[in-house]
Amino acid sequence: MYVLGISCFYHDSGAALLKDGQLVAAGEEERFNRQKHYSDFPAQAIRYCLDEAGITIEDVDYIGFYEKPLVKFSRILETTLAQWPRTYWTWVKSMPLWLTSKLHIGRTIQRELNTDKDIYYCQHHLAHAASAFLVSKFEEAAIITADGVGEWTTTGWGVGSGTEIRFEKEIRFPHSVGLLFSAITAYLGFRVNDAEWKVMGLAPYGNPTYVDKFREVVDIRDDGSFRLNMKYFAFLHSTERTVSRAWEELFGRPLRPKETELDDFHRDIARSGQQIVEEIMVKMATHVHRETGMDNLCLAGGVGLNCVANWRILQEAGFKDMFIQPAAGDSGGALGTAFYLYNSVLKNPRTFVMEHALWGPSFSDEQIREMLVENEVVHETVDDEAELIDRAARMIADGQVVALFQGRLEFGPRALGSRSLLADPRTSKMKDVINAKIKFREAFRPFAPAVLREHAHEYFEMPEGMDAPYMLLVPKVRADKRTVIPAVTHQDGTGRVQTVTEETNPMYYRIIKRFGELTGVPVIINTSFNVRGEPIVCTPHDAYSTFVRTGIDALVIGRYIVTEKPGEVDYDAGMQRSIALESGSLIQR
Fold first, then answer.
1. Catalytic residue among 11, 125, 287, 379
2. Does the active-site annotation cover 11?
């Protein structure tokens, strides 16, 4: 039995395909069409999933969509009319699209896939819940979902047992922890639904100076429930602004224009807002633990990508173990919808546990060689894997930035060793080199430490043998190790850790292990193989193009090593291009 899950028409559209309850493939459309956070129909992602299984759409038994359009439309209609006439222009802009296409998503999917098969609909937050619980190792667990908004629900908690998921409580639009964090993102001049992690990266540089003012923006109860003071928000009646003039008056400054200088005020806003979001999530998780009495927690929704809050939940809320869906945002809704259909609706037993996030396309050495030859790329062939691993590790130890392109592409926003940039964490200047000459992004942006799982407890304040494979937890770096790995130690002494095992990604593991043998430090910098404004690379051509346009020193792609570039790299041009891509003024095909 094949089940196809689809998410689209908001942001980060994606697809996931199951065969007899096992995940075959999953991917975000942005990786294929190279338009970051693409929201329209995921035609290429679906085609990839079908091709990976060797089937056509006619072989698919069930097709599921991650939202209920009529319920979502009723929310938009009700909130639009409640704010009339201030919502006039919102109505003018949005209603034609809803009336002509979004209300008819089933027909749109059928038309795009050239099929007359029935389309099944899953509630948005139920898809999030299923994406975490049904693929976890837990037979039963508490569940928390939190994001901007689905149909009406913005935050919910409940219980999963076997194949059943039951929500106990929800918070409804417009009160949303996700929209609160988006408001902070917008106020700081960053792009909403794209740069929320910039706020997390900036926060350690600030002080919680404005926490009291944020308590005027949001009323937080002891159980983690909350209400936004809507006078400080504009999203109910505007598609152009998230925060109101009252917000700007409360904090004493207007919204920061994009690409202008960040100062202590902005750093303090980021720290204060992040602290408020953490407080909400920790109080909620503590309440859920107290109410359910369960040892395990599953977490999904865009707020599940807030790795600082996640670590605090694990440390403070009372749960013994936690699983966070690595594609916690909307793309993961496709995966959740597919599993909800297969396990919860069709009552098939759970047989799949998500032990890694490598569910995208891979490319053979022959396909890679064809790209290299076609583009007349000077390259070296290394047939012996041990030699390839040793060469990569030595280049990293010598201070070079190595792009690694191996195996299947990651599903979700984090590069986890298949499409990664790797570098030496032992020198603090490496962070500035990568940000300035490769990523073309702000100097404060942090990098993740990838560490062999068996050594993680030696470098981070975490239990021996603990898994943290998805860069979704931020423990403290041990005090005696902060000068050893300064390039991956945040301003506040933490690190967004990734534990690596040989079972899930053998080559990546062995490169880190060899680097450890050479240097005595089994930790490397891992950041995504892309530049600012572009998605993580998908194909060999994407990889080579990014290598050529940036200061990456070496590309290890399949069994080939590329170090020569056709001419000098214009870093200033690269920076301007990446800013244009991020702002939306330039779209790469």
1. 11
2. yes
